Pyridine nucleotide-disulfide oxidoreductase (Desulfovibrio psychrotolerans), 569 residues
Amino acid sequence: MSKHVVVIGAVALGPKAACRFKRLEPHSKVTLIDQCPRISYGGCGIPYFVSGEVNSVTELQSTPYHIIRDAEFFRTNKDVDVLTETRATRIDRAAKTVEILNVATGKTDTLHYDKLVLAMGSKANLPPFAGMDLKGITPATNLEEAEMLRDAAASGSVDKCVIVGAGFIGLEMAVAFADMWGIETTVIELQDQVLPGFLSKSMAQMALHDLEDKGVTVLLGESVKAFEGEDGTVTRVVTNKRTIEADLVVLSAGVSPNTALAREAGIDCDTRGAIIVNEFMQTNDPDIYSGGDCVTIPHLVTGKPGYFPLGSMANRQGRVIGTNLADGKATFPGAVGGWVVKLFEQSACGAGLTIESALKEGYDAISVHVEQFDRAHFFPEKALMSLELVVDKPTRRVLGIQGMSELGDALTARINAVVPLLKAHATVDEVSNLEVVYSPPFASAMDIVNAVANVTENVLEGRNHMVSPSQFATLWANRDAEDIFFIDTRLAPNAVPYVEKYPDAWHSIPNEEIRNRIAEIPAGKSVVVVCNTGLRSYEAMLLLNELGVKDVKSAAGGMVAQKKLGSGI
């Protein structure tokens, strides 16, 4: 029996659900509505259009075969009716109708549905700052705003740009303006780190260094109070600490579910406003489905409700909804929140919990940091990758993984390999023995994803006593107040510059000489050993323990991690 499916929202989830359903029930009718003139585009590509890496905004709307996904495309190629510049104003669940308004003409109408899909996405958080109505301030959430930003940057009229928020979009926009257009760029973040909630503080410091090393000013722990302007255009951003000149402001202070229409119709939502759905993506009304940025789904690490406003999530959920509109039984059990962001020299990627979020959730957790080449050390093309594993100590269960690398595709391969294990509540032992394809141009014989688990096992079993990269940097910065003996265990030529710079504090004792020089290590002092990446220092720690020096800690990630942190050692 044919149906009429109405889909509200036509960016990511909506078109995917509509097209999947039409493939399964070609004789049924689908009406797709959206209040914007342009639909079905890759919103996550907006920063790369602004930067110029994506040449034309139409590329964000195009299929892989370079056909623009406009209303005519859906009618001709998908047999889906599309109403653009059309806003849904009310849902009557009892009558199974949607009232609509054409925002261009003011004409109203009513659509009857058998099944309804709510795909309204999210809306940018717009705090009530004074001056929000000034020109030149935008959240950059649609193609029209993207074109405005690109045109402004390309015109040469923008010398100073301020980004409010150091999340994914905020940092991608900062890179776009600073790297591609040479615009003086400042990022303001209320929290005390970039990518809060997604990177540990140690790794966030690495991301911060990557940004600052390329000239981006990042102001942490600072809040915007107001915008000021002249002739109706923004010229200044006022924070709780200073006033910053600005020709352009991008608001990237997060998003919230765009669900007012659903709440007014009596659809169950959580305290955040996200629609509550079951594993079939159904709301409390079995004839109404929702997904993407609108909904809350289980966090598969914590088991609690999660919110994952990601384009990839919306597309996968759209396919599930399309199947179930055709009386299927597809399920979407939840997510672990995998993500990736490209910065300047580095890319950052992760899934699951950081050490800070794990502790906040009540886990007795530890994190372990490793630096290792992403492929065989003897292969000419390689990069040192940072990985951090988060593990629950009592159960050895892996709770999360994050990383940084110059080669983002190599990094995402490692994170993606661990994602299924997070969903399965796997232990560190399973990561240690994870089968990873090997050939020198692609990986090491003992891959870094295995290595970080191996090191974690040693920590859990008391064989490896580590300080994190940020802890080492703090200990070194406070060395005059700390009773610590620092030993560089690398071969002497590597240590000489540091011994010359810090003659009274930096001591060079290579691994090969420890047995013969054990008397040089003062009794009663704590010892911290450091090498290039952490491998030699671990071996030095074991040897020192064997020789009777018990209070020894190894610097995780070694000098490579310190360089990435920008610690200045």
